[in-house]
Amino acid sequence: MSAPAARRSHFVDLTPFRQSPAFFRLWLGTGIAGVGSQMTVVAVGLHIYDLTGSTGAVALVGVVGLLPMIIAGLYGGVLADTFDRRLVAIIAETVAWVAVLCLAALAWLHIDVLWFYYVLTTVMAVATTIVGATRAAIVPRLVDKELLPAASALGGISLGIAITLGPALAGVLVAGVGIQWTYTVDAVLFLAAFTGVLTLPAIRPEGAGTTRGFAAVAEGIVFLRHAPNIRLGFLIDIIAMTFGMARVLYPAVGALVIGGGAVTVGILFAAGAVGTLLSSLFSGRLGHVRRQGLAIRNAVLAYGGFMLAFGLVLLPLGTQLSGSITDSLETANLPALALAALALAGAGAADNVSAVFRTTMMQSAVPDAVRGRMQGIYTVVVTGGPRIGDAFVGLVVATTLLWLPSVLGGLLILSLVTVLVRLNPSFRAYDALDPKP
Predict the structure, then answer these.
(1) Which residue spans adopt a coiled-coil conformation according to this UniProt entry (predicted)?
(2) Is the dihedral of CA 430, 433, 434, 437 positive or negative?
(3) Which of 44, 186, 339, 345 has the fewest CB atoms within 10 Å, measured from its CB?
(4) pTM score of the predicted model
(5) pLDDT of 434 above 90
(6) Are 417 and 239 in contact (CB under 8 A)?
């Protein structure tokens, strides 16, 4: 891999769009569908909190789906390394879309049976995990290797737009027209995902072996055992997502601590997305960073610091038990809301920078024959880590101290990541011009 020509601009590099129209279509369809998916994430949390009044019940959404999602990520990676990756993505996206339609039907019919929502969100998690692993394995086949950092940053823009608009729209729609319309809008937006995938050519894995089933999963795990840089990248992300996720707190924060109800919840979800979006928009120079292991370390340490700051904002506020998720923004503590949103925006920016380098490291250092399996494991980490984080928050928040998960989690991230990177010199020395797994 040769060093790309230096860019003077800090603005995001759009070269992958010009080089690969197929990548652009995939990016666009994924982004539009992602807006709806993020709306549903927020809507489900608000719906379950409204039905139960329990943050623990909201956290249980992630806990219930964790094991099926892990299995789906591992086996989905095998599917992506065995069959046409385009076909695998289409089938998985169809399953996820049907689950969204079922959520909308339950809401319109006012069927408030809690376990139905747990089952459907688990089906969505399984399907989207397979889609994510397959789609990520496709990208290196659509753009040149030296453009992978730029492609990852463009993915950050897509994600940033989705998790900026999605939660904000969910907060407004839930407060204005109800849960039912929120789910329905997601079902419509989801159709864009098919547009992005259906226009791709057939993409079969290169150099794939004859191993199938869970023997192929084991083969991928063996590869990971001999890939210390990729392995540590996964571990760092698990630490960050386990101890640095506060999303299940947002309904309670909007109802009890900062106030402002569903609108505040939407703002808190959107704040991290704004940071993600801004860091992607000004990512033009990231493609020239060679020491990507050190860049990951620094970004994750910044993430831990911002999550610590979020907890410290909540610390002096206590809980006001008279609040409700249906309150208007006029009831909110606006200075606290601004500081909390700023901390979450910083966390979103730092996490996105880390994700750009982690994705680039894996896509450039891992052979195509096992890329689906590595992407499957990576997708499990990216989507499963937050669910472990939901469980962590659910346990810690049993103390009724809503500030404690973020303060404790931020401190754990800062200490654990510092020690792990210090103990792994190959990760610190990782060179993007000589990528080694």
Answers:
(1) none
(2) positive
(3) 339
(4) 0.73
(5) no
(6) yes
